[in-house]
Each structure stands twice: as structure tokens, then as C-alpha cells.
Write a structure and sequence with these properties.
about 500 residues, alpha/beta, Ubiquitin-like (UB roll), Nucleotidyltransferase, domain 5, six-stranded mixed β-sheet, about 30% helix, about 25% strand
């Protein structure tokens, strides 16, 4: 017999039915944009809720994760707690992500895909950003969390969920939020969504598979070759219902299984491949996607850096939300920090994590191996700290990203001294202290004078293509000329990955 679950989410209440013994995470997954960074594998400790009622006993992992007062107040991990009977779930007020939706725009002549209005969107693994354009230019923009986070923070978790039977849910989640964003932009502009007659939707390869409802089986196993690279138009009814019936939706070209249309669009926006010199572009997120332009050749790769630099999987890690510690520094030997929008410290996000590691090295709290010299956790603020386990996870992430860059350089036979331009794209890079990134070995010090933070270059390139149809062919040629360097079983990458784990780079 089903049990009743009352959900109190941001002061909105409703009741749903669940099967006895069903996990709270599964109940919430279908009832809102609830984050499950590890996909419900019970390894990240981020699915915190307050719950009461007839529930399964508290687990050892929860006893370790929560203080006695937190346990007394009903704090539970949704992925470990089952509804044995009627229950209530309280989700604390969530705050909006601080999202970087600005990026470079190269010069181009207007020749839009749309007749009246068009939308451009970047479907990121963590966030979705969309812009509305008219004949006179940009009208408005909106950014939200990717609701697929309920199935895991990384693309691998989502692919696994798709292949295990949740494909329709994943596809509906992203289509629904895109449609809602389109309507919201139209309403803000005082127009009907049906006046929008074209859209360009970019994202990494997996995101476009999930958007179109295509089975990502080819992305889940060796030889990891995409059986779709897109570069195609689709009917608006399928991907963006609510638009003009004659509206078209264009999905730009991907380069390979894990180097997607987002990097094609970023290259378009940065102009990297338009310069005669050697240049490198990197977007460090859950995946680190890297492109190297050298003597008319384009080398690309992707490495699973993991979501640590987005705050996921860390003891007190958070996304870029209000109250997230975004910068950490030493002042007369005292640890200082700032938070996003000056709010009370709620956790620590990627840029703050990078700074914190640099401070820990400077203060000799950890050594070059990442080991703590004395004591336990590095305390930054009340209930915000970096643990030894966090440092290990961050070492894995930074080593993977840096080893990917170094492997491309090795493949092309160049060094950092040959790089005339280093473009750092994406949300994490937008707020990054480059000196801290170099101190921990994520970037080389020698390249910093030539580094340029370019924000959401994928959205910028997507917007350019929406406004100039001739860039479709240019983006196709860009994707087609790329040479993907496979890093799995690559001996150079494997050796570098181990060597770069140290903090003495």
C-alpha cells in the first residue's frame, strides 16, 4: 500500500505517493530540480534534507556526516533514507547559482537564422544558459540549474541512468526546462513564444544525446566513438515545444564522443583558430575539455576531471551560490575569505577551493604530496573546512586537467613557451585566481602572462551562429579538422597524471 510523503520545498507544500521502502532521493528526483551529485551512489553526502516520520534507521555514513545536533534536528541523506511509512521532507531554501553567461564575441556580419526572434542556449552539465535575440540584437538572458543533476553531477552518471531505463525522464527534464526558459524570456520581452522562429542549442556530446533522446550506449563503452556528431536541424516541436510551428532548431557539430559542440562554439567565439600563432583553450568543469591550435592543426581531448572543482563530493563544497566562499587568502598569517554577495559562509566553491589549497601550501599546512603536516582539517570558517580526503580528490582533478593539457602539447611537439594565447573558458575559470591555479599546479606560471579568462565562450559562439548562418559551415569545418587525442591507455597521459599529482609543479 502506498505511503504519503509531504514535501516542503522553498515554502511550497504538496503531497506525493510513494512505495513503502522507497528512497527519499527517488521520491524527490521526480518532483523538482533536486541535486544528486553522485547519482545516488551514496558517496558525496550532498543530498541533505530534513525529514521526519516513519523512516529507515540512520546509517553509519550519516552519523559520520552530521553532528549530534544536526541528527537531532532530522538532517538525513536522501539517498540513504527510506520511507517506511508516511513521512515529511523539508528542503531548506535554495539560493540561485551565480552563473557566468558572458563570453567573447568575434566580429561577424549579421545574417540571422531567425526572421523575427531567436534563442541561443548552452546546455552545460551543471547549468543551462539561454539568450533571446531580435533583429536589433540581444534582448534578454536567463540561466538555471540543469535539472538532470537529479541523476548525477557528471555525464557518466547520467548516461548510466539513461541506459538503465531513465532515458525518457532525463530527456523530458532538459526539454521542459528549455521550454520554460524560452517562455520566460518571451514574457519578459513582451512577446509570444510563437514569435521565436529559430534556436541554436549547444552542449557537450552527451548533453545533446540526452536532449534528443538518443541512446548514449556508444559513449559508454570502448572505443567511445560517437555515432552522432549532430550539425543538424531538428523540428522545434520535438526539442522546444511552444515555438512557431515552422521554427527550426539547430544543433552544432560535436568533435568526438567527449569533445562536444560546446568546444566547437567556444573556438568559434575565441577566434583561436583564426590566428597564425599557437594557442590553447581549456574549459575545466566536470570534464576538462582542451583544444590546441598549432600550425593549422587542431588537437582536442577530454579528461574526466570530476566535479571536485565545482564543489561536488567535498566535505563542505557547494556550487557558486550566495554565501559560497569564493576567495581565500592569508593576511598577516591569518586566514581571510570572501563570499559571493557577502552572505554568511554556506560552503566553498571552485575558486575558493583553489585559493584554499594555495594558502595551505603557502602556510605549509600541507606538503607537496598533499599530506597534512599536522592536525586535521583546515578550518576556513564556521563549519567550512578542507579535509585530507578533500585534498586527495582535488589532487586527482587538477592532475587530470593539467595532464590533458600537457599531453596535447607533447602530441604537437610544443611547450608552454610556444603558447601565445591561453584561453580559459567556463564558469569555474571565470572566477579563478590564476596565481592560485598556478601555485597548485593546475596551470603553469610561465603561461599566466598570456592567459585570458573568456567566460561562457560556448554561449557566445552559439549566439554568434544564431546571428550569422554562414558560421554553420565554419563550425562544421572546425569540428571536421579536429584530431581527437584519446587519453585512455595513453602512456604519456598516464605518466603525466601520476607525476602531476604533486603540488610542486
Amino acid at each position: 500500500m502506498p505511503v504519503s510523503i509531504k514535501i516542503d520545498w522553498n515554502h511550497k507544500e504538496w503531497i506525493v505517493q510513494a512505495e513503502p521502502g522507497e528512497k527519499l532521493s527517488d521520491v524527490l528526483r521526480g518532483n523538482g530540480p533536486f541535486d544528486l551529485p553522485c547519482g545516488g551512489k551514496s558517496i558525496c553526502g550532498r543530498c541533505r534534507v530534513r525529514a521526519k516520520g516513519v523512516l529507515s534507521p540512520i546509517t553509519d555514513m550519516e552519523l559520520e556526516a552530521f553532528s549530534p545536533d544536526e541528527i537531532k534536528n532530522g538532517l538525513r541523506l536522501a539517498c540513504l533514507t527510506r520511507a517506511a511509512g508516511d513521512a515529511e521532507i523539508y528542503i531548506e531554501n535554495e539560493v540561485d547559482l551565480v552563473i557566468m553567461d558572458k563570453g567573447p564575441t568575434a566580429d561577424f556580419i549579421a545574417d540571422p537564422l531567425f526572421a523575427a526572434y531567436g534563442v541561443a542556449a548552452d546546455i552545460g552539465t551543471t547549468t543551462v544558459c539561454m539568450r533571446l535575440y531580435g533583429i536589433t540584437g540581444l534582448i534578454g538572458s536567463v540561466s538555471v540549474k540543469n535539472p538532470q543533476a537529479a541523476f548525477g553531477a557528471d555525464v557518466i552518471s547520467r548516461i548510466e541512468h539513461f541506459l538503465s531505463g531513465s532515458g525518457e525522464k532525463l530527456t523530458n527534464a532538459i526539454r521542459t526546462v528549455l521550454a520554460e526558459m524560452t517562455v520566460r524570456l518571451a514574457e519578459n520581452a513582451g512577446i509570444d513564444a510563437k514569435q521565436i522562429d529559430a534556436a541554436v542549442l549547444a552542449g557537450n556530446t552527451a548533453m545533446l544525446y540526452l536532449l534528443t533522446g538518443s541512446s548514449p550506449k556508444a559513449l559508454s563503452r570502448a572505443p567511445f566513438k560517437a555515432d552522432r556528431v549532430f550539425g543538424e536541424f531538428s523540428a522545434s516541436e520535438a526539442l522546444l515545444p511552444g515555438l512557431d510551428e515552422n521554427a527550426s532548431v539547430y544543433l552544432p557539430h560535436c568533435m568526438s564522443a567527449f569533445v562536444g559542440a560546446d568546444i566547437t562554439m567556444a573556438l568559434l567565439a575565441s577566434g583561436l583558430c583564426d590566428i597564425p600563432e599557437t594557442g590553447l583553450l581549456t574549459d575545466i568543469g566536470t570534464n576538462a575539455e582542451i583544444a590546441l591550435w598549432h600550425k593549422g592543426k587542431l588537437y582536442v581531448c577530454s579528461t574526466a576531471a570530476g566535479p571536485a572543482f565545482e564543489g561536488s563530493g567535498l566535505s563542505r563544497g557547494v556550487y557558486g551560490i550566495d554565501g559560497a566562499i569564493d576567495h581565500v587568502w592569508l593576511e598577516s598569517g591569518i586566514v581571510r575569505y570572501s563570499t559571493i554577495n557577502g552572505k554568511p559562509a554556506a560552503g566553498i566553491c571552485g575558486s575558493g577551493i583553489t585559493d584554499a589549497l594555495a594558502v595551505m601550501l603557502e602556510a605549509e599546512i600541507i606538503d607537496e604530496t598533499g599530506a597534512f603536516n599536522a592536525g586535521g582539517d583546515f578550518i576556513i570558517a564556521d563549519n567550512v573546512y578542507i579535509s585530507p580526503k578533500d585534498v586527495r580528490r582535488l589532487q586527482l582533478s587538477k592532475s587530470a586537467a593539467r595532464a590533458g593539457m600537457e599531453t596535447l602539447l607533447h602530441t604537437a611537439g610544443v611547450g608552454w613557451r610556444d603558447i601565445s594565447s591561453l584561453y580559459i573558458a567556463g564558469g569555474f575559470g571565470s572566477f579563478l585566481n590564476l596565481n592560485s591555479a598556478a601555485r597548485i599546479g593546475l596551470l603553469p606560471f610561465e603561461a599566466l602572462p598570456r592567459a585570458k579568462v573568456i567566460g561562457n565562450a560556448s554561449l557566445a559562439g552559439t549566439s554568434m551562429l544564431l546571428q550569422n548562418r554562414s558560421l554553420i559551415e565554419k563550425s562544421r569545418l572546425l569540428a571536421g579538422r579536429s584530431q581527437t587525442i584519446q587519453l585512455d591507455r595513453n602512456p604519456v597521459f598516464s605518466e603525466l597524471y601520476v607525476d602531476l599529482m604533486m603540488f610542486d609543479q
